[in-house]
Write a structure and sequence with these properties.
The chain has 85 residues and is mostly helical. Helices cover 58% and strands 11% of the residues.
Length: 85
C-alpha cells in the first residue's frame, strides 16, 4: 500500500507560507496577514491529516509520515507496511 508524498510537501509549503505572512505582518504592522497565514496553515494541517490515513484501517499516519527521511512506514494500528511515493 502507498501514500502520496505530496501531502508532506504541501504541509511544509504552508508552514513556510505562514512564516512569510508572519514576517510581513510584523514588518507592515498588519495583523490580518498573520491571521491569514495562521488560517491557511491550520486548514492545510486538517487536509493533510485526512490525506495521510492508513488505506487499510483508516488510522492516522500523520506523525509517521512527517518524520524526516520516512519512506517505508508501518501503521501503528494494523501493522500494514506502507510506502511513501
Amino acid at each position: 500500500m502507498s501514500i502520496n508524498k505530496l501531502w508532506k510537501k504541501q504541509l511544509l509549503a504552508c508552514i513556510g507560507f505562514f512564516f512569510v505572512m508572519l514576517a510581513l505582518g510584523v514588518l507592515l504592522h498588519r495583523g490580518v496577514l498573520i491571521i491569514l497565514g495562521a488560517i491557511v496553515m491550520c486548514l492545510s494541517a486538517v487536509v493533510t491529516e485526512r490525506g495521510t490515513l492508513c488505506p487499510n484501517c483508516r488510522e492516522s499516519l500523520f506523525k509517521e509520515v512527517m518524520k524526516p527521511g520516512a519512506h517505508g512506514i508501518e501503521c501503528p494500528e494494523c501493522k500494514t507496511a506502507i510506502t511513501l511515493e
